[in-house]
Design goal:
By secondary structure, this protein is α/β, with parallel strands linked by helices. Helices cover 49% and strands 9% of the residues. The chain is built from nine helices and six strands, in the order H-H-E-E-H-H-E-H-E-H-E-E-H-H-H. It has a six-stranded mixed β-sheet.
């Protein structure tokens, strides 16, 4: 079974889930009562699966779908003001095909990026119970297992950050004091992924200027640089290795002087590339 089919099967399981009665009742209540401005729309009212590039190296994680965003549209971070700001930033960082996320059929594509939530249903008061989170971690783990290329996890908001740490604590021995949330903080996780904290793109954070376009775009671009640097740094290492081999064993049909010159040139090329990549 290919990756796409595996995701399709997982997403079907997520959407059909009714394990948490409180969450099921609340999401359906929201879908029935609706917000006045969306009174003529049909709400999704079911759990929300992840969305994006299934081979992506960056994973964005929020806590849960929004009551009148994802729970209405059927796609995570879609159809509300948080989504408006988030995708404006992702677009500027060249991680999405467009600066808006309005509905499931708007043609949006993500580049090297996947978006999901720790909890798949909207919780009352945005506060899931520990048992509800633990139940949903089963789906989150399956997503993580399928997203084999992910190198960076960006937690959108402190609650999502804490949920991510809680998820990793189900498998590894982690201490909360070693993972303190702050915007742009980076932590190495036991499975070699890097966790980055990011202020939530909520209207409150934007209006109070806790987060702005420049700050969030910079964070996204820095995350991309980490991936790029790791890849290009490996290329530098390979160039250096070739230089060592040439130095020790020589180049076929080359004079000793030519061997030395080639090895020196490769070493300087490697050091020069690394110097510029680290900037």
């Amino acid at each position: 079974m290919n990756l796409s089919s595996q995701f399709t099967n997982l997403n079907k399981k997520i959407i059909a889930c009714n394990k948490c009665k409180r969450l099921k009742n609340f999401r359906e209540k929201i879908a029935k009562e609706k917000r006045k401005q969306y009174i003529n729309e049909k709400y999704w009212g079911k759990p929300i699966n992840g969305f994006g590039d299934e081979n992506g190296q960056v994973l964005l994680i929020g806590l849960a779908p929004a009551a009148h965003g994802g729970n209405r549209t059927g796609r995570v971070f879609t159809g509300d003001r948080s989504a408006d700001f988030l995708y404006k930033c992702l677009y500027k960082a060249k991680m999405s095909s467009q600066p808006t996320s309005k509905n499931k059929n708007d043609g949006l594509k993500l580049y090297n990026t996947y978006v999901t939530t720790a909890l798949k249903c909207v919780p009352p008061g945005d506060k899931p119970t520990p048992l509800e989170l633990k139940t949903c971690f089963n789906y989150f783990k399956q997503e993580i297992d399928l997203l084999k290329n992910v190198k960076i996890i960006i937690a959108l908001g402190k609650i999502a950050f804490d949920a991510c740490i809680q998820f990793y604590k189900t498998t590894y021995l982690l201490k909360n004091k070693n993972y303190v949330f702050a915007h742009s903080t980076k932590y190495h996780l036991p499975d070699k992924k890097i966790l980055i904290g990011c202020y939530h793109p909520s209207p409150r954070n934007v209006n109070t200027k806790r987060i702005n376009l420049r700050m969030m775009v910079k964070l996204f671009k820095n995350a991309k640089k980490i991936i790029t640097w790791n890849f290009k740094n490996m290329k530098c290492y390979l160039i250096w290795l070739v230089g060592v081999i040439v130095w020790n064993y020589g180049v076929p049909q080359a004079s000793p002087l030519e061997d030395v010159l080639v090895a020196i040139a490769l070493s300087f090329l490697s050091m020069g590339l690394k110097k510029y990549l680290i900037k």
